[in-house]
Write a structure and sequence with these properties.
Blueprint: E1 19-24, H1 42-50, E2 55-58, H2 63-73, E3 79-81, E4 86-90, E5 102-104, E6 107-111, H3 116-130, E7 134-136, H4 142-149, H5 153-159, E8 165-170, H6 176-187, E9 192-195, E10 200-203, H7 208-220, E11 226-232, H8 238-242, E12 246-251, H9 259-264, E13 269-274, H10 275-287
Parallel strand pairs: 1-2, 1-11, 2-3, 11-12, 12-13
Antiparallel strand pairs: 3-4, 4-6, 5-6, 7-8, 8-10, 9-10
Length: 302
Amino acid sequence: MTAGAGARAPRADRGADARIVVVSDLDGTILRHEDYDATAALPAVALLRERGIPIVLASSKTRSEVEAIRAALGVFDPFIVENGGALLWPVGCDPPPPPGTVAAGPYGRIVYGTPYAELREALPRVGEALGVRLLGFGDVSSETVAEWTGLVGDALQRSLRREYDEPFLPERPLSAAEEAALVKAAALLGLRVTRGGRFHHLLGASDKARATRDVRRGYERDGGPVWLVAAGDGANDLDLLLEADAPIVVARPDGTHTPALVAAVPHARFTRGIGPAGFAEAISEIVLGARAGAAAGRPAPP
């Protein structure tokens, strides 16, 4: 999705009748990139829970990974997995799931993504077209994935239970021209490539925005408009942020903001704090009454 393509016009002012719904990335946003620690974000998560504000996690992580993180955070709202591959709406959640969900165990589920087996088959073809070997999670041992991610034990195994998204690394750094050629090679197969904090991701015609639109529709069915706050730090969060009424761009470990987000979402709130500290900073300002949206957003970094 190109910047602004299909995006709705943000509502800078919440309005007294609108319900706040927060949709947030995990890695680099609620979790620190270095060690996946969420401690700095916990006060904001607690504030949202106290106010009855839904926290919809939207991640490149697998369903199994997000389930474990939700339990640790005490968050049990709907969630989006594998870069928009599917939306999972817990049975018994208030409001009930939006139209189009299919029962899948403890969830109503809407699938947007391409099955993992098809992505695995396509990845070497994309690499051949590019002329650079691409190493996905499915190409290497679990020990190598552990080295790449820092995950061990059950957390590592949960990361390998992939359904709609294949993280991968090129065998060498790519030039800007090669990055563009990579995207084009995937598109010729009807697939997409996006970039997270650590990995490239190969996926189908799915993104976080498509699932987020269904999240908005689901909560709107509960009565009244929704004022959607979205937080992210990486290029793969662009589609999500363009759907938000109040987008939050969280600072990266070096204190900067992803250039693609600076360029495409200049009206966002750019945090001073890094990772989960930045998430907590912005959420606290919004929920505790700071002016929202473009009116309160810090100027985009140069």
